[in-house]
Amino acid sequence: MQYLIINKTIKFLLFASCLFLISCSSFSIRSLTQTKFSEPGDTVQTVVAINKDNHHTETPQANNDLWQRLFALYQLPQVDNDRVQAQIDWYSKHPNYIKQVQKNAAPYLYYIVNEVEKRQLPGELALLPIIESAYRPFAYSHGRAAGLWQFIPSTGRYYGLKQSWWYDGRRDVHASTQAALTYLSKLSKRFDNDWFLALAAYNAGGGTVSNAIKQNRKRDAGTDYWSLALRKETRQYVPKLLAIAHILSNAEQYGIELQAMPNTAYFETIDTVKQIDLARASELADISIDELYQLNPAFNQWATDPHGPHYLLIPVDKALQFKQGISQLADEQRVKWQRHKVKSGETLSHIARRYRTSVALIKQTNRISSHSIRAGKYLLIPTARYDESLYSRSTKMRKKAIVNKPRSGERLQYRVKQGDSFWRIAQQHQVSVRQLAKWNAMAPGDLLKPNQLLNIWLADGALHPTTQVSPLNKHQTIRYTVKNGDSLYLISKRFKVDISDLKHWNQLNKKYLKPGQKLKIIVDVTRS
Predict the structure, then answer these.
(1) Fewer CB atoms near the end CB (10 Å): N or C, the chain?
(2) Which residue among 132, 268, 291, 332 is the active-site one?
């Protein structure tokens, strides 16, 4: 009997051991399958799966380094040729540029990396806004492209980016990122998942790349990106992306310092339900109007678009406070209203311009079906909560706001003398020409007048020159090449500037322009 019991015990132990070995083997096979055969974009998911079985919660996403997470998502082939090397050489010689674009990217990079990873796209695409806009949300090009991803008006509308008096979706960080990644995915499919051709098409247009491929086929030449006869900008476009991706992932080798990028969300997208004054929103979130615009650069006016989209990007640490505040906000507190008595001869257009609002909104608010208004009647007008806004439609008010903007340090006032220039005054006070002009809401090329007062700021007992441009600078200087048929009128209409300004910026005395002539144009991106 004892022998039988011992025999059964031994069999049970052998059976249990077999089950244990099989389960261990199954785990090992599963782990090997997940790690060895996973796609390049699946690295994070693979580690999560293995760690889950080990009851270990630390993952790449849990650490504090967004860069390493991004580098793990790289998928584009490494290319070593003269075109790529030329761009690597340029970036390695300009560390200050790389430092600046990292600073520009800091509020947006986590969100864009997240969206790229969700779609299982090459991680390098998260760096494309460096090539397009240096990660500046107010970037604007001579081709009328705007925003981080540089959409032109027509392409932006095709991919659902609304453009109205109130709002330009091309500068909306959330909406433009979704549109850009959809567009890039579509181009990748069009060119049989060849990402180099897709990127070239994003820069030059799908038709341009397809035509170049057709031309090469006729000549029995290669049809890959590197073989195509494309314009210089497009020939440099892919090498620039490959170069910056390589430089950043090998920063130490090139003596580049990577800025700390926490692998956590910088902002939260919050539903505002309906229109809200942006100054009121900044109060609810307890952030400056500048910080609000940095995350929400799409708004052209002092309030969100009454017809949507109805959301704002708010810093994560302020999101709960903002949600609680907006949930308790009465409708009459969302926008500042003013009662206006109509005077004889006034029209809705006059009143709209005066209060920096739109005719349509005045009509909607007051339930007016026609353009007719009567003197003596009262209208309820939605107006800005702040008069000295940097974002006012009035150039005069915007300049006044910039000049009077509170800054750290001590302000000196300098009276311009006969023969003075920006350069001479800047040298005298050891500041940069650009900063001196910016403090006074002027451009470096503007003319100075005798007795004109200029502000000069001292910080910590000394003046510190800088050439850094604020990421919220809505005025962009572009260089435009005159084409056949161009005139001052047509160019002024296209870029929404005054003919007199065009003449002043370019010191034009003649009425006619010549094809090939270069023009300096200072555009307000909220109007273009």
Answers:
(1) N
(2) 132
**Is the Cβ–Cβ distance between 66 and 259 less than 8 Å?**
no
CA dist 464 → 97, 199, 467 (Å): 19, 41, 10
Residues 6+ apart with CB under 8 A from 147: 133, 137, 139, 168, 170, 171, 172, 176, 297
Q: How far apart are CA 284 and CA 334, in angstroms?
A: 11
As given in the structure block, the two tokens for residue 304 are 């969100």
Fold match, 71-254 / 336-383: no
Q: What is the distance in angstroms between the CA of the first residue and the CA of the last residue of the chain?
A: 97
Beta bridge partners of 267: 315
Superfamily for the 475-524 domain: LysM domain (3.10.350.10)
Q: 357 near 277, Cβ under 8 Å?
A: no
Our answer to whether residue 58 is catalytic in this structure is no
Tell me the pLDDT tens digit for each residue of 504-523: 888 887 778 888 888 888 88
Superfamily of domain 395-458: LysM domain (3.10.350.10)
> Which of 125-134, 457-466, 483-492 shows the lowest per-residue confidence on average (mean pLDDT)?
457-466
Q: Which residues pair with 421 in a beta bridge?
A: none
Tell me if the pTM is above 0.85: no
* Residue boundaries of the structural domains of the chain: 2-65, 71-254, 267-325, 336-383, 395-458, 475-524
Amino acid (one-letter) located at 328 = Q
| CATH 3.10.350.10, applies to 336-383 | yes
Kindly report the CATH number that applies to the domain delimited by 71-254: 1.10.530.10
pLDDT (tens digit per residue) in 273-320: 999 999 889 999 999 888 999 999 999 888 899 899 999 999 999 999
